[in-house]
Predict the structure.
Amino acid sequence: MIKINFIHHTARTVIKGNGILYMRISGLDKELNISTNINVPKNDWDSKKEIIKSRNEQAYQFNKCVSDLKNKIYSFVESKSKNNELISAQMLKNHLKGKEEQQLTFLSLFDYHLTHNASSLAKNTIKQYKSTKAKLSEYLKTKLLGGSKINQLYILIHSS
């Protein structure tokens, strides 16, 4: 289960007494600290409730933004969990930043490589790749994964 905390950092601001809110997300393969780009006066931040006190005229909008970020993270994690998909800190970070990420299984990586590099590969090399893929598939089905959930071995390709 993931845990989301919001932290007020005053060290990284230009305006004295203000701070930027950071999200600290733990419970994945590594901990994430992501800036929300919300600049809040130190006196207006309630660190126990993790909300902006209503003294600030923009408090409602900022608190809604914080709530929306939490909901976005939880819905992403829930959708991946329902589909038994891998969830990593990098995937979550890319999702929050709007970067598209293509997820391939280990076996589909062979097909990906062959289709994108077929013109530069010799005929016998292509046969070797296909043979290796067939043997690896058989091994994954029978020994390693016990005949099911072969798609659990993911390779992530990050598009920049």
In short: The beta strands are 3-9, 18-26, 32-41, 45-46, 51-52, 101-105, 154-158. The chain is about 40% helix and 25% strand.
